[in-house]
Structure formats: C-alpha cells, structure tokens
C-alpha cells in the first residue's frame, strides 16, 4: 500500500479513489461472475461499477465517490461559496474528460478528431478564463481542490495524445498544469503503479466481457 491517488474511474474497478492522500488498493474484475457476485452481495446500488469499499460503506457513482473523498481530504472548499464553485468546475472537468474515454470502444482516430475539433475549443478557453482570473495556479483559492483534479485528468490525457502544444494559446492553463503536476502527491501518483494508462485492446475486451457489452 502507498499514499497515492487516482481520478479516472475505471469501469472494472472494485476500488477507486480520487487525488487524495489515502492508502488504498486496486482490485480489477476480469470475469463476468465476479461482477455478478458483487450484485448478489448487494454492494452495487445501481448494479454498476466502479465500487469503493471504505469506512464500512460501498460507494458507487464516481462523482459522489470523488466528493466523499474530497471532503475527507479537505479538497471541497473553505466555505459555501468556494464549495459550489468547486462543484461546478468539478462537473465541467468531468464533461471535458468524458469524450476521450471512448478510445478503444470507437476508432481512436475518430475519437481524437472529435476531441480536437469540439472539446478542446469549447473547454480550453473557459478553463483558461477561470484559471487566469484566480491567478494562483489553481482554479479556486490558493491550494489544490477537487476542481483542480477534475481538470487535471483530461489535460493529462490530452497532453499524452496531442502533446503540450495544446497550451500554446492558454498560458494560465499551462501554469495550472505545471502547478498541479508539481504537487508532491500528484507527482508521486503520476510516477507510481496506480496511474492508469491509455485504453488498449485487452482493456476493451475485459470491459465487454465483465459488463456483457
């Protein structure tokens, strides 16, 4: 076990955490019977993954899980005004990230073309405006919050696919990216075993097998 973090909620994970300094372990499902066993045990409220088993609870729904852990780690704001701003930006970051998750389930070239033509032009200017207005290298306040981590995940993926040129017209987002990836826990996670990689053929096959797609 290590103090590490993760934000991309994998549909085959039995446990999942957000960028939060908690000890955790990952357990992936590879067979349909293991998924059905969790349903029979009553651990999956809506019969879907991911599942986080923590504090005697069985948490599903990735947004709810992230907020639960965010509150435990003090990442959800210092007051109601910050909390609602963080929550809105958190949801925006998830919307920004969602299209890239289709890689492997649809032709990669098609997915990337749509991300480049639709998602990047829509969201990069909006998040640039927020980051520039705050000016600290974070989206809200002067320290890391759940909003930052929600935005960092798509940016990590887009840099992996498109390179750092995505920041050419967005200096505040480049500052944001450099600030977040320099945070000790984030840096350790990115170098560690919990960081999930691009969807590959095996992963897609496993998802289809476990979820009977």
Automatic annotation (TrEMBL):
Q: Which GO terms describe its molecular function?
A: glutathione transferase activity
Q: Which GO terms describe its biological process?
A: glutathione metabolic process
Q: Which residues form a coiled coil?
A: none
Reading the lineage from the top rank, the first entry is: Eukaryota
Q: Where is the GST C-terminal domain?
A: 79-207
- Which Pfam families does the record cross-reference, listed alphabetically? GST_C_3
Which residue intervals define the domain GST N-terminal in the entry?
A: 1-77
PROSITE patterns the record matches: GST_CTER, GST_NTER
Q: Which family does it belong to?
A: Belongs to the GST superfamily. Alpha family.
Protein name per the record: Glutathione s-transferase-like protein
């Amino acid at each position: 076990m290590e103090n590490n973090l993760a934000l991309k909620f994998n549909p085959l994970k039995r446990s999942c955490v957000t960028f939060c300094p908690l000890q955790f372990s990952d357990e992936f499902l590879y067979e349909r019977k293991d998924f059905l066993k969790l349903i029979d045990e009553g651990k999956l409220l809506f019969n879907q993954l991911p599942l986080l088993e923590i504090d005697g609870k069985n948490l599903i729904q990735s947004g709810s899980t992230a907020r639960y852990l965010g509150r435990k780690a003090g990442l959800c704001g210092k007051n109601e005004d910050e909390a609602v701003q963080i929550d809105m930006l958190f949801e925006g970051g998830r919307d920004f990230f969602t299209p890239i998750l289709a890689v492997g389930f649809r032709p990669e070239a098609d997915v990337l073309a749509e991300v480049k033509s639709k998602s990047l032009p829509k969201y990069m200017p909006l998040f640039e405006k927020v980051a520039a207005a705050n000016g600290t290298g974070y989206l809200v306040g002067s320290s890391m919050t759940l909003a930052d981590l929600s935005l960092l995940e798509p940016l990590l993926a887009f840099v992996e696919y498109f390179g750092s040129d995505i920041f050419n017209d967005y200096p505040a987002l480049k500052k944001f990216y450099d600030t977040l990836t320099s945070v000790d826990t984030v840096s350790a996670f990115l170098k560690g075993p919990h960081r999930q990689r691009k969807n590959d053929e095996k992963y897609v096959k496993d998802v289809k097998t476990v979820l009977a797609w």
